[in-house]
From TrEMBL:
Keywords: Antiviral defense. CDD domains: Csm3_III-A. It comes from Sulfurisphaera tokodaii (strain DSM 16993 / JCM 10545 / NBRC 100140 / 7) (Sulfolobus tokodaii). GO terms for biological process: defense response to virus. This is CRISPR-associated protein. The keyword Kinase does not apply. Residues 22-224 form the CRISPR type III-associated protein domain. The lineage of its organism: Archaea, Thermoproteota, Thermoprotei, Sulfolobales, Sulfolobaceae.
Length: 279
């Protein structure tokens, strides 16, 4: 019998929280995403996403996108099969198992549904979710706790026409370097190697290999974790393929030291024999 705890939503045997403070290192732009149709004769303003009180935010969905796409690179480097999760490129569809899976769910064959989902989805689908299945990790919205806003005038790219609208300038608002944001992810039933995988992605962000938000080619979107906290409750090994990791239940450290201490999880990811997707 395969241990499906990692993908089960009906029991919580382990809860893992990673949270901390993020410091912006280069201009950061999480846009509102709707500046098509502006008047080419005037200077338009493209503002950053803010909450009702005017505080810049990074939505959980943006984090999920960043983790998923960087994760895809990390998994491919380990020669593991994965999907982008974009459009029709998701594992259940790629393995032609989506209909089987839906039928098992509809007819209440839960064990069959678990088996199909286990065998025919990648680590990204299991962690971040896929069509009609929520992921094992939840990304909370990041809120600025200290911030300054800046603007830069740029040539606008019309999203509707896909070309630079001649002469149209846009005032692009961004969050200034030095600004700080909250960061928090909550994972349920995560194997040690999945925790290590998330930490690997976070370290790549921290080390400047991954940018977040818009205008990456202009060097925007570099961030660092200035302090982090790991909090782990429940079982310490999830699933047959998991690798034991000896770690305290709570770790609080500043950025670099935190990733140093969490190395055993990242090693578990590097060494785990991940048995899915089967092919
Ligand atoms: Zn997948």
């Amino acid at each position: 019998m395969v241990d499906y705890t990692f993908i089960r939503k009906d029991v919580i045997k382990r809860q893992t929280v990673i949270e901390g403070i993020l410091e912006v290192q280069s201009p950061l732009r999480i846009g509102v995403g709707k500046f098509g149709g502006m008047d080419p004769a005037s200077i338009a303003r493209d503002t950053v996403l803010k909450d009702a009180e005017g505080t810049p935010i990074i939505p959980g969905s943006s984090w999920k996108g960043v983790f998923r796409s960087e994760g895809e690179r990390v998994l491919k480097r380990r020669n593991l099969i994965t999907c982008s999760g974009v459009g029709r490129d998701y594992c259940l569809n790629n393995f032609r198992k989506y209909d089987d899976f839906q039928r098992s769910l509809r007819e209440n064959y839960i064990e069959d549904a678990l088996k199909t989902f286990w065998n025919y989805t990648c680590l990204n689908c299991k962690l971040f979710g896929t069509m009609s299945v929520i992921g094992a990790v939840k990304f909370l919205e990041s809120r600025a706790i200290e911030f300054k806003l800046g603007t830069r005038t740029m040539v606008a790219i019309s999203r509707t026409e896909g070309a630079a609208a001649r002469g149209a300038l846009v005032q692009v608002e961004f969050v200034e370097p030095g600004s700080k944001f909250t960061f928090k992810i909550i994972g349920n039933n995560l194997p040690n190697y999945a925790i290590g995988y998330l930490l690997t992605i976070m370290k790549n962000i921290h080390d400047g290999f991954v940018q977040i938000g818009g205008h990456k080619s202009r060097g925007f979107g570099l961030v660092k974790f200035v302090n982090l906290r790991f909090l782990d409750k429940g079982e310490k090994k999830i699933g047959d393929e998991d690798i034991p990791v000896s770690m305290q239940d709570e770790i609080k450290e500043d950025g670099d030291k935190f990733f140093e201490k969490m190395k055993p999880f990242m090693e578990a990811f590097n060494n785990a024999k991940i048995p899915y997707p089967v092919h």
